[in-house]
């Protein structure tokens, strides 16, 4: 998904009078513009990877907000954040299942000859290029810790 694709989606959403999707897309494009400014100013254009990173960051923020709102007893705000998260997830690649991640972790452990929790850095280094954008980093980390602790 490119920035141009998102801008096109925003136009379609506005024409369809879909207020929720329009709001999320505006927020997302604003985040991408901010990223571009931080990265290199007016001359920098976000790559597909940059756009994906911004979408992932926004989705993670929504997950964190949902947890905080639920803990604070604000289900109404948690529901709003959840709706935004659902829209954001349509722009993310399909996430790997826990079994798929576990299989990749086992392969990485055997490739790196890791045996103790101190070898976690080596395993994570081998795994992250394979799972980037496709699996939650905390899930990958938890499975690596679990398997290296056995």
Note the main attributes of this structure:
Hypothetical Protein Yqey, Chain: A, domain1, mainly alpha, 150 residues, 7 helices, single chain, Arc Repressor Mutant, subunit A
Please give a structural write-up.
This protein is 75% helix and 0% strand. The model has no long low-confidence stretch (mean pLDDT 89). It is mainly α. The protein starts with a helix and ends with a helix. 19% of the residues are buried. It is built from seven helices and no strands. The protein folds into two domains: 3-89, Hypothetical Protein Yqey, Chain: A, domain1 (Orthogonal Bundle); 98-148, Arc Repressor Mutant, subunit A (Orthogonal Bundle), CATH 1.10.10.410.
Number of domains: 2
Which topology of the largest domain does CATH recognise? Answer: Hypothetical Protein Yqey, Chain: A, domain1
Note the beta-strand portion: under 5%
Uncertain regions spanning at least 5 consecutive residues: none
Radius of gyration from the CA trace?
A: 18 Å
Number of strands: 0
Query: Architecture of the largest domain in CATH?
Result: Orthogonal Bundle
- Biggest sheet record: none
Q: In percent, how helical is the residue content?
A: over 70%
The succession of helices and strands, N to C, reads: HHHHHHH
Given this structure, which CATH class of the largest domain is correct? Mainly Alpha
Measured between the Cα atoms of the first and last residue, the distance is 40 Å
Number of helices: 7
Structural class: mainly alpha
- Name the CATH superfamily assignment of the largest domain: Uncharacterised protein YqeY/AIM41, N-terminal domain
The whole-number mean of residue pLDDT values reads: 89
What global shape is seen? Answer: globular
